[in-house]
Design a protein that fits this description.
about 180 residues, mainly beta, seven-stranded antiparallel sheet, six-stranded antiparallel sheet, 1 helix, globular
Length: about 180
């Protein structure tokens, strides 16, 4: 887990969920819960590309999290992956080929973690991984249409591309810097 800034409020959070089979799809469904209101950033890293999306603020101090493996073929193990927090955050433009049609990536997220850290969620292949981060709502500024960003005082010391992602916007994609 990567701590983004030591200034961010640390609150205990928990993740509960499991795989279910629905129609021809494997879906991991779960809930992130916290002792106070929070927001969530979901992230997918595909090689040097980083896709991200932000949830709406939590209601009931919980946010659902889902990884849906939607088959794109009736015979081949090719899937479009949907990673979402159904309160407005979704990443759905990633297609991957697995070894078989019943493949389920290993969920690597811990059951308990703290806000302000990037939590590894699932590794689908060496080139594709999913993660998420939760932030106390008191650390975020919620703007028009519930788009949030971290308060400016928390951005000092946060490196690119996280600084740009956590400043504004609802979703996006960026290219990670490549080490020379």
């Amino acid at each position: 887990m990567t701590r983004l800034s030591p200034q961010l409020k640390r609150i205990r959070a928990a993740l509960r969920g499991d795989w279910i089979r629905r129609w021809e799809r494997n879906i991991w469904e779960g809930t992130i819960s916290c002792d106070e209101p929070f927001v969530t950033l979901i992230v997918a890293r595909l090689e040097a590309e980083l896709f991200w999306a932000k949830s709406l603020p939590s209601k009931d101090n919980s946010i659902q999290l889902q990884l849906d493996l939607m088959p794109t073929s009736k015979t081949e193990p090719v899937f479009q992956l949907h990673f979402l927090a159904p309160t407005g955050a979704f990443i759905q433009n990633i297609t991957v080929k697995f070894t078989d049609r019943d493949h389920r990536p290993t969920i690597s997220a811990p059951v308990e973690f703290e806000t302000g850290v990037v939590v590894p969620f699932a590794l689908c292949s060496p080139r594709l991984e999913f993660s998420f981060a939760c932030f106390s709502k008191t650390d975020a500024v919620v703007r028009r249409h519930y788009v949030w960003g971290l308060k400016p005082r928390f951005l000092d010391g946060i490196k690119s591309p996280w600084r740009e992602i956590l400043t504004r916007g609802r979703h996006g994609e960026t290219v990670l810097p490549v080490a020379a």
